[in-house]
Amino acid sequence: MSPKVLVVGGGYAGLAASTALAEAGVSVELLESKGFLGGRVYSTLKSDSFPAPVDNGPHLLMGCYRETFRLFKRLGVESDFHWVDPLSLAWISPGGAKVSLDCAALPAPFHLLLGLLKSTAFPGSEKVKLMAALVPFAGHPFLIPRSARTVADWMALTRQGPTTRERFWVPFCRAVMNVPPETAPLRGLGEVLNRVFFGKRKDSALVVAAKPLSEIAFPQGLDYLKMRGGAVHLREGAQRLNLASGPFSVETVSGKSFSADALILEIGRASCRERV
Questions:
Q1: Whether 204 contacts 87, CB under 8 Å
Q2: Nearest Cα to 40, choosing from 14, 22, 65, 19?
Q3: How confident is the model at residue 267 (pLDDT cuts 50, 70, 90)?
Q4: Residue 253 near residue 34 (C-beta atoms within 8 A)
């Protein structure tokens, strides 16, 4: 008899764990507090005031989100995304000038090297310093001194120019790490730099959903689990965990109790009381 796994949370991580286990033949039960799968990723419905769905969640993905795209492949929704490969960006700078970064259709890292050389976003002198600051992340272990702990430390150590800081390091750091360079761990950002710029060219591509986010992966994931004998319980948010002995059990808001041989928690913050 296969083990039974209880997954709490029906966002991307919970759905990925559930479908991967079901694919391996494991019995899965998924608990989600909302009336639909997706967690914080969802689309609003059309309305008279705004006649188009609005997405809440990742509006832009990158090709380096390998596990996410492994989930999409498992569910057969790969065609629901538009890939910008090689990477091509254009934006208006604070001064009003239009600048761009267009990578070449070459293997990594040459796609980025040529893209930076041709880019109108950075002064020539700063391009050289930017490329020199990226090279230490080309392989493991990273070639950085122990004294450089934060992204701000690295920018100072490599003497990054003001334009490069404003248009590359600060927005990239905030987008990836969700914190400013002064507190962002350099090695954490380094893992992303390594994958994006020194992995495969496709890792640096931008990926845009071609459908509302609520229509991609979550309905297909629900069907996927049901077809493989899994169970999905909506509006069953976890209230209490019992981890003391024997099978793991979860008590939900409705008063029901679910038990399993293993437990996976995919909840963004502590939202249940734990009894150990």
A1: yes
A2: 14
A3: confident
A4: no
Neighbours of 263 (CB within 10 A): 19
User: What's the one-letter identity of residue 76?
Assistant: G
pLDDT in tens, 199-228: 999 999 999 999 999 999 999 999 999 999
For position 270, what pLDDT does the model report? 47
CA dihedral angle for residue 72, residue 76, residue 80, residue 82, rounded to 10 degrees: 60
Q: What is the DSSP letter of 131?
A: H
Residue whose entry in the numeric block shows the structure tokens 């992340």: 137
Number of CB atoms found within 10 A of residue 191's CB: 15
Residue-by-residue DSSP string for 145-195: -TT--BHHHHHHHTT--HHHIIIIIHHHHHHHHSS-TTTSBHHHHHHHHHH
Distance separating alpha carbons of residues 133 and 108, to the nearest angstrom: 17
Q: Is 81's pLDDT higher than 90?
A: yes
Asked whether 158 and 128 are in contact (CB, 8 A), the reply is no
Which pTM value belongs to this model? 0.84
